[in-house]
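sry for the spam today, last one i promise. struct tokens for design, 396 residues
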């Protein structure tokens, strides 16, 4: 392949006129008057603390939407991952397999519970756990696997579950990015022992900060209702109609419940989730139709059986030109970035002694750039994004 000629004067990076004067952001939450009204009503109710009536309603609606037995609203996905391991009391030093290409929170769940993370490689075309390599990481100390739905695309959960069953392993699926995505016709949240969603401001459904742990396991759900409320049995005190007048400290835990104000936002956001995800799909389809066939440009591979919620739109670009393309697109007024850096390249994980090579993970990272995608991205903004990518790639 020929290399990009970087000296073209028409490019904004070289002093030319940018495609877009005011930068187009890479992400933006969609907040409507209905959301604002719901939050305002929650405030007016004066029930502002955790686990209130709006939180319960959001949990009920979320469980019904996903088709799961229990959805527990929490203050983040990081918290959900912590609880997913806290609830199991695995012996200290037990091993948990975590994909190397993920956000730090996936690894923090086991780390915070004194477990050893074993980093696993991912596919170079979509950043998901490489199932061919998975069994090679399993030892007699392995207790769990944490697959991640990068960009909102679930990995090969049937194959991962088959390996987990064979070795008696617990599966925690980090579904932080995949609310509303489907795997083989079923929403994510249904394919693991426990799944953990994020409702951070960057996600397809937001409660500001927030997350949920979902499971079909009653025992796990019941203990987590206690653990998320500082190890107390306040949940049953509030719901079982017994007139005891107090609640007790029955387990370890932390303060992980979510405010009723955020619960109210969750209800209105969830009611619009399909509409918001459809808008993202429209944008992704437009990008794909306009940008396919450009030399040197490829896209995150969506595997068979996956219906994406298009949390991210990822381009795969020539690795030797990646940072130049990033700068050139930014100069054209298109915000574009790279997320994540593989765990083993980060100081904290280097200090944990993760010194293996991760060829799939590095190949993916070295080509990945993200374009703006969110429901309120206007038609003219989408056109500008496409125009800028075409302008920059015309230099190849
Ligand atoms: C894969 C993954 N896991 C966990 C998180 C953390 O989510 P939260 O901010 O809700 O804790 C993120 C956030 O982007 C993520 O991408």
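last one done:
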């Amino acid at each position: 392949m020929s290399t990009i000629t970087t000296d073209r004067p028409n490019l904004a990076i070289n002093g030319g006129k940018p495609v877009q004067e005011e930068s187009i952001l890479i992400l933006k939450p969609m907040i409507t008057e209905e959301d604002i009204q719901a939050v305002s009503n929650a405030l007016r109710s004066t029930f502002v603390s955790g686990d209130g009536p709006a939180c319960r309603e959001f949990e009920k609606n979320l469980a019904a939407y996903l088709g799961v037995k229990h959805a527990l609203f929490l203050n983040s996905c990081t918290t959900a991952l912590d609880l997913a391991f806290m609830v199991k009391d695995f012996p200290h030093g037990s091993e948990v397999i975590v994909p190397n290409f993920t956000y730090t929170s996936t690894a923090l769940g086991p780390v915070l519970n004194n477990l050893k993370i074993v980093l696993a490689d991912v596919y170079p075309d979509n950043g998901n756990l490489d199932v061919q390599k998975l069994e090679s990481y399993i030892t007699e100390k392995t207790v769990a696997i944490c697959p991640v739905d990068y960009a909102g695309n679930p990995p090969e959960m049937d194959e991962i579950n088959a390996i987990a069953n064979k070795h008696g392993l617990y599966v925690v699926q980090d579904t932080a990015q995949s609310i509303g995505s489907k795997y083989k016709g079923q929403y994510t949240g249904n394919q693991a022992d426990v799944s953990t969603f994020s409702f951070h401001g960057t996600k397809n459904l937001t409660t500001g900060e927030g997350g949920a742990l979902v499971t079909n396991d009653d025992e796990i759900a019941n203990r987590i209702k206690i653990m998320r409320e500082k190890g107390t049995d306040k949940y049953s005190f509030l719901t079982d109609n017994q007139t005891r007048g107090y609640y007790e400290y029955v387990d370890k835990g932390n303060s992980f419940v979510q405010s009723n104000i955020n619960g109210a936002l969750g209800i209105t956001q969830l009611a619009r989730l399909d509409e918001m995800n459809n808008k993202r799909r429209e944008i992704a389809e437009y990008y794909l139709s306009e940008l396919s066939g450009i030399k040197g440009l490829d896209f995150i591979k969506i595997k068979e059986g996956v219906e994406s919620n298009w949390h991210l739109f990822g381009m795969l670009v020539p690795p030797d030109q990646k940072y130049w393309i990033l700068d050139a697109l930014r100069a054209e007024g298109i915000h574009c970035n790279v997320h994540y850096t593989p765990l083993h390249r980060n100081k904290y994980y280097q200090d944990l002694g993760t010194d293996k090579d991760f060829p799939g993970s590095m190949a993916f990272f070295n080509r990945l750039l993200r374009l703006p995608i969110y429901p309120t991205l206007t038609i003219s903004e989408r056109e500008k994004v496409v125009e800028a990518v075409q302008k920059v790639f015309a230099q190849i």
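The chain has a mean pLDDT of 95. ok im logging off now
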